[in-house]
Design brief:
292 residues, alpha/beta, Arc Repressor Mutant, subunit A, Rossmann fold
């Protein structure tokens, strides 16, 4: 049976279309999921489509669009499109960003730089300072801070953990060597935080683990990309970074910068305690001659 995950309060942004689609994505039919995918891949373009144009792009019937709109809890397609236009006018980068395309320049390095700069700029421009402050406070206050990621996301989760262990204790990667996820998260409660990096082709096992943590009341901070479906419904905070590029392999420049910002802001908020912890580590390094 599909579960519903209703938020306890209204979202603070105008991205209610995206949040609604993530929350009820599993309830859509196969044809309705095609419509949701078209919208979620480029939410900012929704306000430009007529119902018939959206049906054509998703390769579904107009009747499917009507059912989709009703299931997405809008009274009409025009109401759905108006909400997208309002979000675009409000300035949400998610609603202003379309797919990255090549300009046709033959200079490979110049083109590559443009693509990387685009992703980095979009990732940083999407951040809301007050929300980053709230996340940083939670990351510092957590009894245990757990970092989780699979496949390519694993090294980014490990990178994030390596920054935080410089100035706070109680950090871990899940799963650790020789551990199952359950063994490394069984003690987590609402007093802890799990930072999940889940990018592109998210494994079903990650969705299952996030759902289990959500049901136990464990706060989750999810860093993902626009292709994510369902899993944002399990997170208390979600940061979305573009990773698509005109070139083979995903671009993680924006993701890594956002993780670094989270660590930096958290270190700032750790105050004297965080600095003393870092100084103690450096003193032990000096005592043991850890570095040449």
């Amino acid at each position: 049976m599909t579960k519903n995950y209703n938020k306890t309060s209204e979202p603070s942004s105008n991205n209610t279309i995206v949040e609604t689609l993530h929350r009820i994505y599993q309830d859509f039919s196969k044809q309705e999921k095609r419509v949701a995918d078209v919208i979620l891949d480029a939410p900012g373009e929704l306000g430009l489509y007529s119902a018939s144009e959206l049906a054509e792009r998703a390769n579904v019937s107009n009747a499917t669009i009507t059912r989709f709109v009703r299931r997405a809890q809008f009274s009409s397609y025009e109401e759905l499109r108006l909400a997208a236009r309002e979000a675009r006018s409000w300035g949400s980068p998610l609603f202003q960003t379309g797919p990255v395309t090549s300009t046709g320049d033959n200079d490979f390095l110049s083109e590559f730089l443009k693509a990387e700069t685009h992703n980095l700029a979009q990732a940083l421009n999407s951040l809301v300072p007050s929300e980053i402050d709230e996340m940083a406070e939670a990351l510092i206050a957590a009894r245990n801070l757990v970092f989780m990621g699979f496949r390519n996301s694993h090294f980014l989760a490990s990178y994030a953990r390596n920054q935080f262990l410089q100035f706070r204790n109680g950090t871990r990667i899940s799963p650790g060597p020789g551990e199952t996820i359950t063994e490394s998260t069984a003690d987590l409660t609402s007093e802890d935080v799990v930072l999940v990096v889940g990018l592109r082709r998210i494994l079903s096992s990650l969705k299952n683990e996030m759902e289990a943590l959500h049901d136990r009341g464990v706060p989750i901070l999810l860093l993902t990309d626009p292709s994510a479906r369902v899993v944002p419904a399990f997170a208390r905070w979600t940061l979305t970074c573009p990773v698509e590029s005109p070139y083979l392999f995903d671009s993680y420049s924006g993701v890594q910068s956002v993780l670094r910002i989270l660590a930096y802001k958290s270190f700032q908020k750790s105050g004297k305690r965080g600095r003393a912890y870092m100084q103690a580590i450096e003193a032990r390094h000096a005592e043991t001659g850890a570095f040449e």
